[in-house]
Specification:
single chain; 346 residues; alpha/beta; Nucleotidyltransferase, domain 5; 2 domains; five-stranded mixed beta sheet; 12 helices; 13 strands; 37% helix; binds zinc ion; ROK; ATPase_NBD; ROK_glcA; nucleotide-binding
């Protein structure tokens, strides 16, 4: 693993009373808070990057479209946003949060269902272009870390963070540490199987949790209602401009906020499945808080109320045990880059 401590040039030891900025940064505790790092959040459609200080504050952010299906082009785009930011800010490391499975060395993207990466040495490709220490993290892990350090999970040592977007991104903080798993690809909670023989999933299995508790599930339910009973889907179709195939998750949320019963029902079903999976995770992990982020969480209690209800109905030992709180994430769309920037400090 490449860290600033090992890569930074070391000068001969000065007198015991003197300290330099470089030495300060070489000490673990100070690295956690001092100086600036860049976080880059690479998703299927956009690359968002920002200069972040040790308190998690984004000083300056830029965004570009993710280029097509070429791995070198993605590395070039990351290098370009880093160059844009380092023109105005002195930074000492870069953290990349990527929508893919990352190896335990925080170096290679093993597999990315929605991007061009297949065993891609992303850390070294970017480091060669930018001349700074680079680490690569899974994007959902980066978001979980940001919520733990600076957001809705502050002060909690055992935390499950679920990013409910197109699928479900999972991130675990256990005992105050980010849990990555033996091969770096742990916490892929969206691929826990909840319905044997259920809907097929991009991971190769059927019945994965993210096929039932995600934006994709929300859209599938809404389109089904629109196909079966267009009158019942009037409000959702109004939000989508009348196009059944163009119905999106935000269209459903917008209609639900206006009180549309069919849209509310779709969110209730997705929330129900969310709570179902959270109950299974409680059996395994016993977290003290679930933090729910991602685009679908914009629906707020329209999603969380049925999720909490089902969670409390399904949690093992219900009525005889303390149960975790379920809260909405606080850092919004910047969580990924803030978390990646902070993880570059570790
Ligand atoms: Zn799956």
């Amino acid at each position: 693993m490449s860290t600033p401590a090992s890569d930074a040039p070391r000068s001969p030891l000065p007198p015991a009373t003197a300290t330099t900025a470089a030495e300060s940064l070489a000490s673990g505790d100070d690295r956690r808070t001092q100086g600036l790092t860049i976080g880059v959040d690479v998703g299927g459609t956009k690359v968002a990057a920002g200069v972040v200080d040790g308190a998690g504050t984004v000083l300056h952010a830029v965004r570009r479209p993710t280029p097509g299906h070429s791995a070198p082009e993605v590395a070039d785009t990351i290098a370009a946003v880093v160059a844009e930011l380092t023109a105005d800010y002195e930074v000492w490391a870069v953290g990349i949060g990527a929508a893919g499975w990352i190896d335990a060395e925080r170096s290679r993207v093993v597999f990315a269902p929605n991007l061009a990466w297949r065993d891609e040495p992303l850390r070294d490709e970017v480091a060669a272009r930018v001349g700074l220490p680079v680490v690569v993290e899974n994007d959902a892990n980066a978001m979980a870390w940001a919520e733990y350090r600076f957001g809705a999970g502050r002060g909690r040592r055992d935390l499950v963070c679920l990013t409910v977007g197109t699928g479900i991104g999972g991130g675990l903080i256990l005992g105050g540490e980010l849990y990555r798993g033996a091969f770096g690809i742990g916490a892929e909670a969206g691929h826990m199987r909840v319905v044997p023989g259920g809907h097929p999933c991009g991971c190769g299995n059927e019945g994965c949790w993210e096929q039932y508790a995600s934006g994709r599930a929300l859209v599938r339910l809404a389109r089904q209602i629109a196909a079966d009973d267009p009158a019942a889907a009037t409000a959702m179709l109004e939000a989508s401009g009348g196009d059944v195939d163009g119905l999106t998750g935000p269209d459903v949320t917008e209609a639900a906020r206006k009180g549309d019963p069919a849209a509310i029902r779709c969110l209730m079903e997705v929330g129900h499945w969310l709570g179902e999976g959270m109950a299974s995770l409680a059996a395994l992990l016993d977290p003290d808080r679930y933090v729910i982020g991602g685009g679908v969480s914009d629906a707020g209690d329209l999603l969380l109320a049925p999720a909490r209800e089902r969670f409390l109905e399904a949690v093992p030992g219900r009525g005889h045990r303390p149960v975790a709180e379920v809260v909405i994430a606080e850092l919004g769309s910047q969580a990924g880059l803030v978390g990646a920037a902070d993880l570059a400090r570790i």
